[in-house]
Structure formats: structure tokens, C-alpha cells
Amino acid sequence: MAPRSAIAATFPYPERFQAAAAYAGIGRDPNSASTAAIARLPDDARLKLQWLYHQAKFGPYAAQKPNTRKPAEESEWTSGDQPEKMLSAEAMRLFVEVLEANDPEWYFKVPESIIKPLLDALVNKKTLDPAESYTLKSIQEPETIAAQNENLLETKDEDAIKEGFDSVKIFDTWTVLSTSGRKPKPRYKHGATILQDKMYIFGGCYSGRYLSNLQVLDLKSLTWSEIEAKTQSPGSATTVPVAPCAGHSLITWGRKILSIGGHSKDYSDTVTVKEFDPQTCTWANIKTCGKPPISRSGQSVTLIGTSLVMFGGEDVKRTPLNDVHILDLETMTWDEINTIGTPPFPRSDHTAACHCERYLLIFGGGSRSTCFNDLHVLDLETRKWSIPKQVGITPSPRTGHAGVRIGEYWFIVGGGNNNDGVSETLCFDMSNLAWSVVTTVQGRMPLASEGLSIVFTTYKGKEFLVSFGGYSGNYSNEVHVLKASYKSDIPPPITNGIISSTALTMYNSPNGSILNSEIKHDQDRKVEQTTTDKVHLSIPNITQKESSGVIGAVKTDIDGLKVALKTEQLLTRQLQQALALTHRTIANLTEELKVVVDGLAPERSRLFELEANVAELQQKLQPMEGFQKAVEFLRQKKAA
User: Fold this and answer.
1) Distance CA 329, CA 615 (A)
2) What are the pLDDT digits (tens) for 195-241?
3) What average pLDDT does range 4-27 have in this prediction?
4) Chain CA centroid to CA 123, Å
5) How far apart are CA 478 and CA 457, in angstroms?
6) Which of 58, 111, 158, 526 measures 20 to 30 Å from 536, CA to CA?
7) Who's near 634: CB < 8 A, 6+ residues apart?
8) How many CA atoms lie less than 13 Å away from 319 in the CB half-sphere?
9) Per-residue pLDDT at 191
């Protein structure tokens, strides 16, 4: 009898692939009852599964890959045209995806006779990486997944909802945020953005199916609601349902929301741009000019001034891309950018951010079989790629992570590396090119998953990161928040001044620029102090309630003072750097002035010589004036 839990969803690879193949009836006894699973699938799905199984177990198939009827169906293949280049791990992943797309509930249908041997094999492994230890701990009868319950219950923690962001007491620690209202369906690869103190969630993927609903979380009341949005039919006043999509980008522009790119059931050769108007609750397809990019998903789209900068992604055949396109939002005109320098390897599911309204930063992402941890910078004025030298920790490779910028700080959350979820939350200080770890989560949390979203909001002068969704073996619809101790009130170097020159030096020098060797030590001390605070705050309550409250308040004040001190120290360092640059500029100008003065000395001597010559000539001309008068007198006398 098939168990009702989704234990197979918690398996790592290759065990998850083995469970999927056994359930489908591929590679097992033909008389096995589980062969009925593949018999129920469409012909094209059966062919794909057999092809991928052979690719994963034995290598390239002698026969060609199954043909697909529609271009959109090609998105199910990563490298079907070049099977010899598909790795076994990638074939396993695609096998599970194809099965999930055609039988979304297969996790719940796997017989115990298949689960038990795989579970025993996992438990009996003698050498288990520490990173995998939480996987075995999590392989237990899970609670009923919220998405399977058609009548989702509102949270019972009314006090936590009423307290809202005030309930988050500790800096730099992820906390589950209690919300009310009907939660969205779990998902990943969705879009998220903030507009007027509300977080909008659109689209995404759940159990191999694209979603089309638009959900809103009011960040003041922490209440979920769903918008019955429609799309204006082209050339008609009527509206039609919104096409499901995933892998798109959601951007706030003015009082509206833009959705760019992504894969959809409504196939298009080029990237589509849709606009949502909260006033009318309607989507409209935006007509663009110029040369639009080819259709893709997993791209990054960054708002810089009045333009959107798109980089990378993967096309409908899942071929990674590394091209750059700019959409002018005022004229809605696309322009492809020809860059110089060495561009990043083609990739998708990376993150991007803008610095100084001039530099586009690209971090991480993945190709068909590789995850990256490199940082590339594109100077949008010179259109040149570079890799600046960085300090601090070295980020681990990841794809499917999320990023958001707060002032000079770029936060990177989650992602995966083809084996496990990435557990640490990173912060990249753009002004100093320094990496640091903000916090680390334990176990298979949504924050260590792929396809999650991250935005930031401000509450009572504090900045909060807000995450939603993700996939780490299970789909998530939880909301997590982190109160950032990194302050964003330091003026970013975007003016035509000294700090702007510093940023120019950092990104355009061959090896970057390390502004201060103390930065890494300060960040390490901050991490140690934060960790110490967390340990102290997690000590069980062994004193009176009143004492605990006083101690907690004092520690909160201390944390606030530490943050303020750290901000002042960083601002002081920036001012010192600016002052040093000013001194160097003055020294250079003084040297130039000296050269000019030295060059004027010969000219001054020559001027004196010319003045003497003029005076001498004037003296010689005086007798000539008397002679000229005498001649004139004689002429007049002769004429008379």
C-alpha cells in the first residue's frame, strides 16, 4: 500500500532518481505492478523517460532523442540535440522533472517496497558528508503538506501577527513571519516585488505546472489576499485569464508592475513584457520596439535609472545565454549591447545588482552541469566586462539563489549546487568589494532552496529582508524575515565626486581595489559578536521573568549601539579614504602648478627682452618724427 507521505521528495540524488525510476517501472521487472505507472503516461512522456533513464545509467543513447511537437515542449530538454554532452546527474534531474510534470503526485504514490530499501541504503552509508546529515534527520513522516489541503487554515498565532515585524528581536537571524489570510500555493521560480507596502507574488512553478495567480501580502497587516487579475485581449475590450508562467522577472515601475520574460504555455519567439495595473487589476501586453531578445527564463533584469538591463538566462531549449539587452522604459525600445572584455560564461538563475547607476554586477548561476561562484562587473558606460579583486570569505557555488540590494550592501540568499541547498546568507559590501556571512540556517529550510524570492522593506527605520517560497525537495509557501544590522543610510557613491572616483578605480583596475585591510577583520569581529549574542540570547531562562526582560532589552540596546558604531566606523573609513584621495589630488595639482610656473620663467624673460627692444625702437623713432615734420613743412611751402 502506498504511503501518504512524501518521503521520496526528501531523498538526495541519485536515490530520488532511483525512486522515480522504480515507481515509473523503468529498469525493473516487467511484471512488477509499478509498471502501471508508466503505462498511464502519454507516449511522448514514456519515450522521454526511457531516453533519460538510459542516458543517466549507461550514457548516450544510440537512438535520437524523442521529437517534440511544439517549441515550448523543447524547454523540457537541456541538451537533447547534443546527448553526448549531458551528464548523468543532469539526466537524473530531468527524469524526475518529466515524471513530476506528468504525474505531480508521484511522491505520495511510491510504494513502501520501493522506499524502504533506498531509505535503508541511505541510513547504512558509512561515510556521510556533514552537509548531508540533516537530510537523514529529515527523512521521517512529515506533516501533511499545506498545499494538499484545499482548506488552508489561518494561523492561530494572533499575537505574533498583531506584533508583526516588532516580533523580530534579533538582528541578522531568519525568523518565520506569521501571517493571516489564505496562503498562496507553494511554488518556486516565481516573481516578487514591493509596491506601496505590499509584496506581490506572481506565477511560478508547483509540481511541474506553471501558475498564473497573483497574491498580495500587506506588510502592515500581514494579511494575504488574491487578486482576480485578467489580461486585456489584443484588439478587444474583453479580458481573458492570465497565462501561467515561471522563471520571469517582476519589477516595480512607478505605480505599476512589469513582468519580463519567463517560460509560458503561450509560446513566444521573443521576450514578452507585461504590465499590471493595481488600480484596474488587469495585465496588459506591452508592445516594444527595436530588436527584442529571444524568449528565455532564469534571466536577471535590473532597473537602472529609466532602463531595464537584462542578462543571460536560458532559451526554450534550455541553452544557457550570456547576452546583454537594455529596454528603455520611456520609449519601450530594446537595444542589444555589444560588450568588450571577457564576459561571464553563459548561465541562468543567477543574481544581478546595480552600483553607482553605472555598474552591473553578476554573481553565481548555473549552466547545464556547472554552478558558478564568480562575480563579474559590466561598466555600462564603457561596456567592458571585468572581474574585480574581492576580500573576505569566498562564496560557494550556487544557482537559483535570490539577491536584494540595500544601499551599499547586496544580500544573497539560498540557492543550490546540484547536491544540496546553500545554507548561508551572504552580504557583499559594494563599496569595499568585501564578502561576509550574515547567518546560516540549519536543515532543509526554504532559505536553503532554489527558486525563492527576496525583497526588502523598511519598518520603524529598520531594514528587513522578506523571503517567500522555494524548492528544496518540498515546495514552500512560508514567509521568512531577517532584520539587517547593515545600515543603508551611508550615501552611495553615485555623484561626480571623490567617492565616485573611488568606485571607478575599484571596478576598472585590473585587480580591483582593496580600500582597507581592516574591513575583513571588522566583518569577522561582527560575525563573532553576532554569533556570541545569539548564543547568549538562546540560553534557557533560568532567572526571573523580569530579569530576563531587562537583560533582553539591554542586549537589544547593545546590538543597536554596535550597529550604530559599526556604521560610524565604516563612514569614518570612507571619509578617511576620501580625505586621502583629496590630499593626493591637491599634491598632483600642486605639482602641475609648479611645472606651469617653471615653464613661465623663460616666457617672462623673453617678455622683458621684447619690452626693452620696443623701448629702444621708440627712442630711435623720435628723430624721425622731427624729420617728418620738416618734410611736411617744406611740402606745404612749395605748394603755396
Assistant:
1) 70
2) 999 999 999 999 889 999 999 999 999 999 999 888 876 666 677 88
3) 76
4) 36
5) 17
6) 158
7) none
8) 10
9) 97
DSSP 64: P
CA nearest neighbour of 281 among 251, 246, 256, 245? 256
Yes or no: say if 182 and 152 are a contact pair by the CB < 8 Å rule. Answer: yes
CB atoms within 10 A of CB 554: 10
| Gyration radius from the chain CA atoms | 33
State in words which class domain 146-539 has.
Answer: mainly beta
Q: All 3 cell numbers of residue 215?
A: 497574491
Question: How many other CB atoms are found less than 10 A from the CB of residue 489?
Answer: 9
Q: How many CA atoms lie within 13 A of 411 on its CB side?
A: 30
Give backbone dihedrals phi and psi of 274, rounded to 5 degrees, phi first.
-115, 150
Rounded Cα distance, 8 and 112, in Å: 10
**Mean pLDDT along residues 580-599:** 71
Q: Which three cell numbers stand for residue 281?
A: 487589476
DSSP H/E element including 534: helix 518-537
pTM exceeds 0.70? no
- Measured from the Cβ of residue 54, the count of other Cβ atoms closer than 10 Å reads 18
How many other C-beta atoms can be found within 10 angstroms of the C-beta atom of residue 526? Answer: 19
Q: 609 versus 464: which is more confidently predicted?
A: 464
C-alpha cell at 107: 511522491
DSSP label at residue 83: G
Alpha carbon distances (Å) from 294 to 136, 208, 288: 42, 23, 13
Cβ atoms within 10 Å of 37's Cβ, excluding its own: 21
Between CA 614 and CA 71 the distance in angstroms is 90
Residues 469 and 112: their CA atoms lie apart, in Å, by 29
Task: Identify whether the C-beta of residue 15 lies closer than 8 Å to the C-beta of residue 121.
Answer: yes
Mapping DSSP onto H, E and C, the string for 385-453 reads EECCCCEECCCCCEECCEEEEECCEEEEECCECCCCECCEEEEEECCCCEEEEEEECCCCCHHHCECCE
Place of cell 563612514: 571
Rounded CA gap, 449 and 145, in Å?
Answer: 17
Per-residue pLDDT band for 319 (boundaries 50, 70, 90) equals very high
> Hey, what amino acid is at 101?
A
Distance CA 576, CA 39 (A): 72
DSSP label at residue 25? T
Local structure of 72: helix, strand or coil: helix
For 24, 127, 154, 481, the CA distances from 101, given in Å and listed in that order, are: 13, 34, 29, 31
List the domain boundaries for the chain: 7-137, 146-539
Q: What is the pLDDT of residue 61?
A: 58
Looking at residue 365, its pLDDT comes to 96
DSSP state of 496: S
Residues paired with residue 337 on neighbouring β-strands, in sequence order: 324
Question: Within a 13 Å sphere around the CA of 57, how many CA atoms are in the beta-carbon half?
Answer: 13
Nearest to 518 by CA among 569, 564, 559, 568: 569
Q: How far apart are CA 527 and CA 516, in angstroms?
A: 18
- How many Cβ atoms from other residues are within 10 Å of residue 197's Cβ? 13
Beta-bridged to residue 227, according to DSSP, are: 214
CB burial string 410-448: b at 16+ within 10 A, e below: bbbbbbbbbebbbbbbbbbbbbbbbbbbbbebeebbbbb
